[in-house]
Amino acid sequence: MSELDKSTEQVILRAARKVFTLRGFDGARMQQIADEAGINKALLHYYFRSKEKLFDAIFKEVMQLIIPGAVQVLLSDLNFSEKIYGFVEKYLDSLLANPDVPGFVLHELSLHPERLLDNIKGMGVDFNLLVGQIRREIELKHIKPVEPDHFMINLVSLCMFPFLARPVLMGLTGFDHGKFNAFIAERKQEIPRLILQSILP
Question: Using the 8-state DSSP alphabet, how is residue 25 labeled?
């Protein structure tokens, strides 16, 4: 692929991500994406033959931005508490850099959960490994008995919710973008503290 082709493809991907984020898969139209990219529809179809192929490319790109770094921490040799702090820091940093991602993922999760599941599995993420780690920590009495599924949902939700509710949160608190970012920086310590306080013996 030539540099021009790569550049055009990146312009299309950026435009598609914006349109898909605003409208979701079902609401997005190829013509809207072409208009956002500043190209004609025929050229868009030359690079991506269908909306499905374009969406899959965007979804994989989005997942690569937020999942691998955080999951890598959980699968590392760090002790359990260090993993929680590391996971939260990586995950929040990824979301700060890509604040449109939570809304994008939530919208598609509500409409097409199978697409999200297929893409996560396609990245080699095996949550059974994480569940096994939590159960081992319980057996060793390093943490109190906790249902692993609830633990993971609590951890992810505490990280993601401020981004999903950001307009309301900023409206209620009077936060500007700088204060919101500072608030998220504080949550890098607050979330692990809250989680660990509830499960450490």
Answer: H
- Matching CATH number, 3-57, of 2.120.10.30, 1.10.10.60, 2.60.40.10, 3.40.190.10: 1.10.10.60
Element housing 61 (H / E): helix 51-66
In the chain, CATH 1.10.357.10 sits at 67-199
Fold annotation for 67-199: Tetracycline Repressor; domain 2 (1.10.357)
Where in the chain are all domains bearing CATH 1.10.10.60?
Answer: 3-57
Reference 34, options 12, 54, 52; nearest CA is 12
**Between helices 148-164 and 80-97, what is the axis angle to 10°?**
30
What's the whole-number average pLDDT of the chain? 86
Give the separation between CA 100 and CA 93, rounded to whole angstroms: 13
* Per-residue pLDDT reduced to its tens digit, 26-82: 888 999 999 999 999 999 999 998 998 898 888 878 777 777 787 788 778 889 899
What is the pLDDT averaged over residues 142-171? 90
CB count in 10 Å sphere of residue 4: 8
Q: How many alpha carbons lie under 13 Å from residue 22 in its C-beta half-sphere?
A: 10
What is the spatial distance between Cα 194 and Cα 141, in angstroms, rounded to a whole number? 19
Question: DSSP secondary-structure letter at 141?
Answer: T
Answer yes or no: pTM beyond 0.90.
no
pLDDT in tens, 96-112: 988 878 877 777 777 77
